[in-house]
From TrEMBL:
<dbReference type="InterPro" id="IPR036910">
    <property type="entry name" value="HMG_box_dom_sf"/>
</dbReference>
<dbReference type="InterPro" id="IPR022100">
    <property type="entry name" value="WDHD1/CFT4_beta-prop_2nd"/>
</dbReference>
<dbReference type="Pfam" id="PF24817">
    <property type="entry name" value="WD40_WDHD1_1st"/>
</dbReference>
<feature type="domain" description="WDHD1 first WD40">
    <location>
        <begin position="9"/>
        <end position="295"/>
    </location>
</feature>
<feature type="domain" description="WDHD1/CFT4 second beta-propeller">
    <location>
        <begin position="410"/>
        <end position="693"/>
    </location>
</feature>
<feature type="repeat" description="WD">
    <location>
        <begin position="9"/>
        <end position="41"/>
    </location>
</feature>
<feature type="compositionally biased region" description="Basic and acidic residues">
    <location>
        <begin position="945"/>
        <end position="957"/>
    </location>
</feature>
<dbReference type="InterPro" id="IPR001680">
    <property type="entry name" value="WD40_rpt"/>
</dbReference>
<keyword id="KW-0677">Repeat</keyword>
<dbReference type="InterPro" id="IPR057646">
    <property type="entry name" value="WD40_WDHD1_1st"/>
</dbReference>
<feature type="compositionally biased region" description="Low complexity">
    <location>
        <begin position="841"/>
        <end position="851"/>
    </location>
</feature>
<feature type="region of interest" description="Disordered">
    <location>
        <begin position="931"/>
        <end position="959"/>
    </location>
</feature>
<dbReference type="InterPro" id="IPR015943">
    <property type="entry name" value="WD40/YVTN_repeat-like_dom_sf"/>
</dbReference>
<dbReference type="InterPro" id="IPR036322">
    <property type="entry name" value="WD40_repeat_dom_sf"/>
</dbReference>
<feature type="region of interest" description="Disordered">
    <location>
        <begin position="824"/>
        <end position="898"/>
    </location>
</feature>
<feature type="domain" description="WDHD1/CFT4 helical bundle">
    <location>
        <begin position="716"/>
        <end position="775"/>
    </location>
</feature>
<feature type="compositionally biased region" description="Polar residues">
    <location>
        <begin position="878"/>
        <end position="891"/>
    </location>
</feature>
């Protein structure tokens, strides 16, 4: 079957590009001269994980949980994989490293300066010299041989155990520099045993024996006339692939030298400079060219059932039917089934390499409980009989483990990766926070804050001496978070108030080893997410409000006013990311949380999370779908498809803000990249909401889209747009002679205000039957609207009464009567005046007359006021302790005591009340009715409180009489 070659696709900018597989083959890793490293789920992955690690990357090597990257800083930097966190420096050179190679015991790096450094697993680093040109390519065999092609046209082989140069081959092309070269003369050892070495030379591939260094074969392709650049054995050593400077690819079955048919020539003759076989030996390999493009080759051969093939191989070996090479030993048998795994070597059999023993196959090469990447390849049980021993033997079978899926890591919405030298820490509707740092100059590390409306706030420039990595921005505060690596003082939150006076900056250090991973800010709160899954809520002035715990691994956050969103993993990922969204409201010291599932496209990841200008949660995923959450309906609605704004498969959208009132999205289209550039700063564009309806390009579909958005999305003129669009749809249905659809539209909208308009329009276009059928709908809609309004008022009234009663109970519980004895104050007594005349004198003296007595007596008809004895104390002046006084009966009885006394009666009368809440509502109605009846019916023995009517003899008071009441008598 001929192999298939995919089209090359964009991976990096034009220049040197490298490509390899993970050890387990699940992902492809590519590097480029742009300094980016991309991790692909496949060549057709539209959104590979991208990180910028340097200005340029020249080599990459994956090793278990680490990945080694050679950058333009002349070092080999180790990173944790897949987090890409720095994990130390392995090598340092005076020029950039061009090639990396390893086996289980040695790690080697070759440089542009013509030096090779080797680091043993359990030894000291040493250097291999004697090279007169840059190192172009290297490989390390299982027998600890290192082969390196150099720019001086020589291919050298060293034995690493003794650091000896054992062989040199000449005749390769000479080059002065690694950069710009396309012929690398890549050596490739046979991976299973390392007994063969292949390297490209002109238009052929030369294969030599590593024992005698004699030439075994020269492989050529009759249809290829260009020079070969790289070659590589398949993981089991039975196939050999090579690529040329013209973009051709050739694949041979090594033992038979038979060419594999397939698409040899490329559509564009660009030199292929990268080649790697899939580690699982499934007949696939990945390639890349000097244009930064990546492609793959599939179906080179068919994968066989490893278990049956292993049994067949063991039987053939036992019967002596297997044809062996001169240096073939039993390692070759096992290595054909476990690619890249080194078998346990038995030193006692090293003297006789041709000895084949089934006992050795059983005892030394029992299939272990392998890693996850080998469990699917090692299947079955092999049985063989030794011609000297007829005992049955078997090879242990391997267990099968379920495939695991990567869970999305936390990211900061509106930001670009931390690895970028110039990056956005925050880009939203308020402004932009940019971080600038230089790898070469450690002093260059600053933060710049720029506001869209410069009339409100001035820009801010800060020295980033704390190495802040995350930030949030709102109208009132700039919040930044740093890690604990700076001076080991703990992770720290630093905030700058924008609308305060005095000391505008405040900070807070996280306790212990807790690290800040995310920060978001609104005009009222600042929320910090930590690696302990704590959500720390602060006010914008620095008061700690709450400390909450997230239910799962955090993914993203956003804030708006008193609300904030938290996206987290509710369960481990499968083909999809299983995410939930916490919608938290914190008003004063009252919290409320709503937990809802978060909708994503199949196989997509969350790319942006935020609020609209109306406070609705909004998400954007890697599939290009923007969704908005409708709280009343408790549903997600897709409102934008990114495919309309992408010119190519590598384009992406960077969301800035969502204006629900205008039904527009402000975004940046990133051409050929995932994130926007910082310099020059891109200009955002406005995109209008558009739901993915069927036939949205037609008039009917476009009107239906506008109608649905006016119903469910909070726009400024939603009611007006709803009426206009409904009328247009009704008219369109009438013109299309689909009267039933027109009537259905009226019934669906259910508005009594629109029915007369619809009837008038139907009569005008002589659709009298339609107009008559709409007439009965008007009273029905009016009745429904009244009932809905009444129900809403009743619900609001009941809720308000319940809240008031609960608040009253709370107040009573807090302010319980204090039983502490009170000290009653002494009554106030008016003392005698010592300067007053005696009683006899006072009695004999005539009382002074009232100067207004003539007015009072004549005009009003009242006698002069009596003289008050100063020794008489009015009762109103005596203070009383009202503690034992009866309460005002006007307040009436309370609801909760009444409800407890009548609860059993209410249950008997209303057995359909399933919950206490429904029973409380029923009781509230009866309680109000009883109080109303009691207030309107006078009790026995109580006089009616009716107003007394004026008698005919009563005369109204004049103005002078009313004024005279305010007169006083002068003593």
């Amino acid at each position: 079957m001929p192999f298939k070659r995919s089209n090359m696709r964009y991976g990096h900018i034009i220049g040197y590009t490298g490509v390899t597989y993970q050890d387990d083959g699940d992902r492809i890793i590519s590097i480029g001269q742009d300094g980016d490293i991309r991790i692909w789920d496949g060549v057709y992955d539209e959104d590979p994980t991208t990180s910028c690690l340097a200005e340029s990357i020249w080599a990459v090597l994956h090793s278990g949980s680490r990945i080694l990257v050679a950058t333009d800083l002349n070092t080999v930097q180790a990173y944790k994989y897949p987090e890409l966190e720095k994990d130390g420096i392995e090598f340092r050179f005076t020029a950039f490293v061009t090639s990396l190679a390893r086996n289980e015991r040695f790690l080697a790096a070759g440089s542009e300066d013509g030096t090779i450094k080797v680091k043993p697993v359990d030894g000291e680093e040493f250097e291999l010299g004697g090279l007169d040109g840059p190192v172009l390519s290297m490989d390390v065999s299982r027998k600890d041989l290192l082969a390196a092609s150099c720019g001086d046209g020589q291919l050298r082989i060293w034995k690493l155990n003794g650091k000896d140069l054992v062989q040199t081959f000449g005749g390769l092309r000479k080059v002065k520099s690694f950069e710009g070269n396309v012929l690398y003369g890549t050596p490739a050892f046979e991976p299973s045993r390392g007994h063969l070495l292949a390297y490209p030379k002109d238009q052929g591939i030369v294969v030599v024996d590593t024992s005698s260094w004699e030439q075994r074969k020269v492989l050529k392709h009759p249809k290829i006339s260009a020079n070969f650049s790289r070659c590589a054995f398949s993981p089991r050593g039975d196939y050999l692939a090579a690529v040329t400077e013209k973009g051709d690819i050739a694949i041979w079955e090594y033992k038979t030298e038979q060419l594999i048919e397939g698409e040899i020539a490329a559509t564009e003759p660009h030199p292929i400079i990268g080649l790697a076989w899939h580690p699982k030996n499934n007949g696939e390999l990945v390639i890349c060219d000097d244009q930064g493009q990546v492609g793959e080759v599939k179906d080179v051969f068919e994968s066989l059932d490893d278990g049956n093939d292993l049994m067949e191989m063991a039987e053939r070996e036992a019967n002596g039917d297997m044809e062996l090479d001169n240096d073939m030993d039993v390692e070759d048998i096992y290595s054909k089934y476990v690619a890249g795994e080194k078998p346990v070597e038995d030193e006692s059999d090293d003297d006789d390499e041709n000895t084949i023993s089934v006992n050795k196959l059983k005892s030394q090469y029992m299939v272990p409980e392998a890693d996850d990447d080998l469990l699917m390849d090692m299947l079955g049980k092999a049985k063989a009989e030794d011609h000297d021993d007829e005992d049955s033997r078997s090879v242990a079978s391997a267990k099968v483990v379920a495939k695991s899926f990567r869970m999305q890591e936390y990211f900061q919405p509106g930001s670009t990766p931390v690895n970028f030298e110039n990056r956005y820490m925050c880009y939203n509707h308020v402004g932009i926070i940019r971080a600038h740092r230089s790898v070469s100059d450690e002093k260059e590390n600053s933060i710049e804050v720029e506001f869209h409306d410069s009339s409100k706030h001035h820009g801010i420039h800060l020295n980033n001496y704390l190495n802040h990595k995350v930030a949030g921005l709102s109208e009132t505060v700039v919040a930044m978070g740093c890690g604990s690596e700076v001076e080991n003082k703990g992770s720290k939150l630093v905030c700058i108030n924008l609308v305060s006076f005095g000391n505008r900056e405040w900070s807070c250090t996280m306790p212990g080893t807790e690290e800040i991973i995310g920060v978001v800010a609104s005009d009222k709160i600042v929320v910090v997410a930590t690696d302990e899954r704590f959500l720390r809520v602060f006010t914008t002035r620095g008061t700690q409000r709450e400390v909450l715990s997230a239910p799962g691994p955090l993914v993203a956050m956003a804030a708006f006013g008193d609300h904030f969103l938290v996206a987290y993993h509710r369960s481990p990922a499968n083909e999809d990311q299983q995410l939930n969204l916490m919608i938290v409201t914190c008003v004063k010291y009252k919290l409320r949380c709503r937990d809802i599932p978060l909708c994503l496209s199949p196989g997509a990841e969350l790319c942006w999370l935020g609020y609209s200008d109306k406070g609705s949660p909004v998400t954007y995923d890697s599939a290009g779908i923007l969704r908005i959450y409708h709280a009343t309906a408790n549903m997600w609605f897709p409102i934008l498809d990114a495919d309309k704004y992408k010119a190519g498969a590598s384009d992406n959208l960077f969301i800035v803000t969502v204006a629900e009132s205008l039904q527009q999205v402000q975004l940046i289209v990133c051409r050929g990249s995932k994130y926007p550039l910082t310099n020059p700063r891109p200009l955002p564009m406005n995109a209008t909401f558009s739901q993915p309806l069927c036939d949205v390009e037609g008039e009917k579909g476009a009107l239906e889209d506008v109608l649905m958005r006016s119903v469910y999305i909070k726009s400024d003129e939603a009611e007006t747009v709803l009426k206009e669009t409904a009328i247009k749809l009704f008219a369109l249905a009438c013109r299309s002679e689909t009267e039933q659809r027109a009537k259905e539209l009226v019934e669906t909208i259910g508005s009594s205000q629109l029915v007369p308009i619809f009837m008038k329009y139907a009569s005008k276009i002589k659709r009298y039957h339609l107009a008559e059928s709409l007439a009965p709908l008007l009273p029905t809609f009016q009745q429904q609207e009244r009932e809905e309004e009444q129900q809403e008022l009743e619900t609001n009234r009941e809720n308000a009464a319940m809240v008031a009663e609960l608040q009253h109970i709370t107040v009573e519980a807090v302010t319980r009567r204090d039983t502490t004895p009170k000290i009653k104050p002494m009554p106030m007594v008016m003392r005698k005046n010592p300067f007053k005349r005696a009683d006899s004198a006072s009695k004999s003296s005539p009382a002074p007359s009232n100067p207004l007595g003539h007015l009072t007596g004549k005009a009003i008809g009242f006698s002069s006021p009596k003289t008050v004895d100063p020794e008489e104390v009015p009762s109103t002046l005596e203070p009383e302790n009202n503690e034992n006084q009866p309460k005002n009966s006007a307040t009436g009885p309370k609801f909760m005591p009444w409800f407890e006394d009548n609860k059993s009666r209410l249950k008997e009368q209303h057995p359909d009340a399933a919950t206490d809440a429904e029973l409380i509502k029923i009781g509230m109605r009866q309680f109000k009715a009883q109080n109303t009846a009691a207030a309107t019916t006078p009790q026995a023995g109580t006089p009616a409180t009716e107003k007394r009517k004026l008698d005919e003899t009563d005369k109204g008071e004049s103005g002078v009489a009313k004024l005279a009441k305010f007169g006083f008598t002068k003593n």
